[in-house]
């Protein structure tokens, strides 16, 4: 990631500084929780995509830096809300904000970050950006509800799973890349291509996240293996196992999803590995990876485009 960031190193640092500045509040708890989750680090992948997209399309301007902060604030707000909904206790290797401060403060500070993002968008004074991000945050909220509805549903299909991850995760990737193109003054075709790049990349990224939940190292990932199982999330590895596993394996996975339990995690891990569910999910992620790369084909050849391709490769070849 350090080599990838090098293409926009100065701009990336400006985004980090802006995030810290925009966390200021007269209410102490807002700053405390905001800094707690922001300081936890993470890849900062979504704002990085905004900056790299901008640099691949032309000069990276101050509006791009501001918009990158918007994307990170919205993402961080969703993390705060997600952890409350999922009753998560560990993220990025340390206690979640809700575990540290409580559910109510986490939800309310998440609301603060959402509204701060829209305050920054107003400063951009671009109706296309505002419209896109209003639609995007609405879609993310629907995705969260849809995921909640699907939790514990062992009859979830692959198409329904794809709808959830598109709405909940990939749509923010798409919005970041699309917004960068809008602020760069690109035509509709280029805006759409960047949107589609982000969408395909986001889908590939989430699919690998779902693989890592069954074969990742907790110390590396900063979260517990099997968390999705505890939450009853019917992710693609489980859906594939329900379709292609033995009758015994299907019964095992169906029980784990419907009862939202990881008590049989070792057997579930063995099942998803034996029937090829992880390999299948990786192959699907690779298919979306390839589509994302195709969306970049008409971009000018520069360091930022090379970095975007590197991010795309990293989305499916990583351990956290």
UniProtKB/TrEMBL annotation:
> Which cofactor names does the annotation list?
Mg(2+)
> Into which EC class is this enzyme placed?
transferase
Record GO terms (molecular function): all-trans-octaprenyl-diphosphate synthase activity; metal ion binding
Coiled coil located at which positions? none
What reaction(s) does this enzyme catalyze?
5 isopentenyl diphosphate + (2E,6E)-farnesyl diphosphate = all-trans-octaprenyl diphosphate + 5 diphosphate
Q: Domain of life, per the record?
A: Bacteria
Q: InterPro entries from the entry?
A: Isoprenoid_synthase_dom_sf, Polyprenyl_synt, Polyprenyl_synt_CS
Q: Mind listing the UniProt keywords for this protein, alphabetically?
A: Magnesium, Metal-binding, Transferase
Q: Which PROSITE patterns does its entry note?
A: POLYPRENYL_SYNTHASE_1, POLYPRENYL_SYNTHASE_2
What EC number(s) is this enzyme filed under? Answer: 2.5.1.90
GO BP annotations listed: isoprenoid biosynthetic process
Q: Which family does it belong to?
A: Belongs to the FPP/GGPP synthase family.
Q: Describe the function of this protein.
A: Supplies octaprenyl diphosphate, the precursor for the side chain of the isoprenoid quinones ubiquinone and menaquinone.
Q: What is this protein called?
A: Octaprenyl diphosphate synthase
Q: Which organism is it from?
A: Halioglobus japonicus
Taxonomic placement: Bacteria, Pseudomonadati, Pseudomonadota, Gammaproteobacteria, Cellvibrionales
């Amino acid at each position: 990631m350090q080599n990838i960031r090098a293409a926009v190193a100065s701009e990336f640092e400006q985004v980090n500084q802006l995030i810290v500045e925009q966390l200021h509040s007269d209410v102490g708890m807002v700053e405390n929780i905001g800094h707690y989750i922001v300081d936890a680090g993470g890849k900062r992948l979504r704002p990085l995509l905004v900056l790299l997209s901008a640099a691949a399309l032309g000069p990276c301007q101050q509006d791009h830096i501001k918009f990158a902060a918007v994307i990170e604030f919205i993402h961080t707000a969703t993390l705060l809300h997600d952890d409350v909904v999922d009753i998560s206790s560990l993220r990025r290797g340390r206690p979640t904000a809700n575990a540290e401060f409580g559910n109510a403060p986490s939800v309310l500070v998440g609301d603060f970050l959402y509204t701060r993002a829209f305050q920054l968008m107003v400063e951009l004074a671009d109706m296309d950006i505002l419209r896109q991000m209003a639609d995007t945050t609405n879609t993310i909220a629907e995705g969260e509800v849809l995921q909640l509805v699907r939790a514990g549903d062992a009859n979830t299909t692959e198409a329904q799973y794809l709808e959830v991850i598109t709405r909940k995760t990939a749509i923010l990737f798409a919005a970041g890349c699309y917004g960068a193109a809008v602020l760069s003054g690109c035509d509709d075709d280029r805006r759409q291509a960047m949107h589609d790049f982000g969408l395909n990349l986001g889908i590939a990224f989430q699919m690998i996240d779902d693989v890592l939940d069954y074969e990742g190292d907790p110390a590396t990932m900063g979260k517990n293996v099997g968390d999705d199982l505890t939450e009853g999330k019917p992710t693609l590895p489980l859906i594939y196992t329900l379709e292609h596993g033995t009758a015994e394996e299907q019964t095992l996975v169906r029980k784990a999803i419907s009862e939202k339990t990881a008590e049989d995690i070792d057997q579930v891990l063995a099942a998803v590995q034996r029937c090829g569910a992880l390999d299948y999910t990786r192959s699907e992620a690779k298919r979306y990876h390839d589509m994302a790369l195709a969306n970049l084909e008409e971009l000018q050849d520069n360091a930022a485009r090379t970095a975007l391709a590197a991010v795309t490769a990293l989305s499916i070849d990583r351990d956290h």
